[in-house]
Amino acid sequence: MIFGRSQRGKPPVEPVTLKILVAGGFGVGKTTLVGAVSEIRPLRTEEVLTEAGRPVDDVSGVEGKHTTTVAMDFGRITLREDLVLYLFGTPGQERFWFMWDELSEGALGAVVLADTRRLEDCFAAVDYFERRSIPFLVGVNCFEGAARYPAETVRQALDLDADVPLVMCDARDRESVKEVLVGVVQHAMAQGADRRRAVTT
User: Which residues form the signal peptide (predicted)?
Assistant: First the structure.
């Protein structure tokens, strides 16, 4: 005891909380990614696909998909004692894009998930984050049975800037997803540091 206070244990650390978006096309694995890594039971707003949505929901390549996110997915992961990430999975269909502005408010960065079978589906997400100067990383979700391409080939097909990270990942695998999230945080912090240097010089 020192001055009547026990030294047992350290005072609780107040963690820094960061917001990361998970975006991409319909059926690319956003809900799966959030669920694979979240330490809490993810909040999901999924609805069953219906005949009414068939004309607007292109399920070619993801014929086994029976539900879709209509608002967002939410999860949380503690990377370190002092660093917690809140994950927000965005809806993939165009008719729900009006929610993206709300979800992107205050985001540190974003993951754009891509599926090489439907690569064009992630163009809108790439364009969205580029236009708003939100740092993002492209994660190519390696589906079973899908053709594998070199990272540089995918980068060229997406016309990505040289400084945008692109990684291969498995949205079902916790460790793979953690690597993606660490990459987003590092990329966003590096971009933030570059901007601060530009302002002071």
Answer: none
- Cβ neighbors of 80 (< 8 A, separation 6 or more) are 15
Give CA–CA dist 113/126, Å, rounded: 10
SS3 26: coil
For residue 14, what are the contacts with CB-CB under 8 A and spacing of at least 6? Answer: 82
* CB-CB neighbours of 184 under 10 Å: 25
- pLDDT per position as a tens digit, 15-62: 999 999 999 998 899 999 999 999 998 876 655 544 544 455 455 554
**Cα(19)–Cα(167) distance, integer angstroms:** 20
**Cα pseudo-dihedral 31, 53, 140, 176, rounded to 10:** 10
Closest CA to 119 of 24, 23, 21: 24
Q: How far is CA 14 from CA 5, 19, 35, 199, in A?
A: 21, 16, 25, 30
**Residue 12 CA to chain centroid, in angstroms?**
29
| 39 touches 76 (CB < 8 A) | yes
Decide: 22 and 87 in contact? Cβ < 8 Å. yes
